[in-house]
Inverse folding.
């Protein structure tokens, strides 16, 4: 049996705060991975001779909790920083109410 859900507006549902411009958002379901790719070079005998690791663009998704219904929804192309990494917003879904909470789903990639 699951625990009853308590929806208190003053209790944020996220654990990471992200500031974009003047607006602060709480990040929920923060999912991203730092991707890398290995390039191998073999010698004339086919043995591994050297390798190089290349960083690939990081992509991910996050749900932002809006402070109020009038909080601006960030748009595509907006840059923000989280975990010391710069990200660019690539996709934005419309607000979806979750009880008293207002959230928006964001897709992002690393800023170049």
């Amino acid at each position: 049996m699951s625990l009853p859900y308590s929806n208190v507006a003053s209790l944020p549902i996220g654990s990471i705060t992200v500031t974009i411009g003047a607006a602060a958002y709480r990040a929920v379901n923060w999912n991203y991975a730092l991707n890398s790719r290995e390039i191998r070079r073999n010698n004339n005998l086919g043995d591994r001779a050297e390798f190089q690791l290349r960083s690939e663009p990081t992509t991910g998704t996050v749900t932002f909790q809006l402070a109020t219904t009038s909080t601006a929804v960030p748009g595509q192309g907006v840059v923000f920083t989280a975990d010391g990494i710069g990200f660019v917003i690539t996709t934005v879904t419309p607000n979806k109410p979750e009880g008293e909470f207002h959230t928006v789903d964001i897709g992002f990639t690393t800023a170049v």
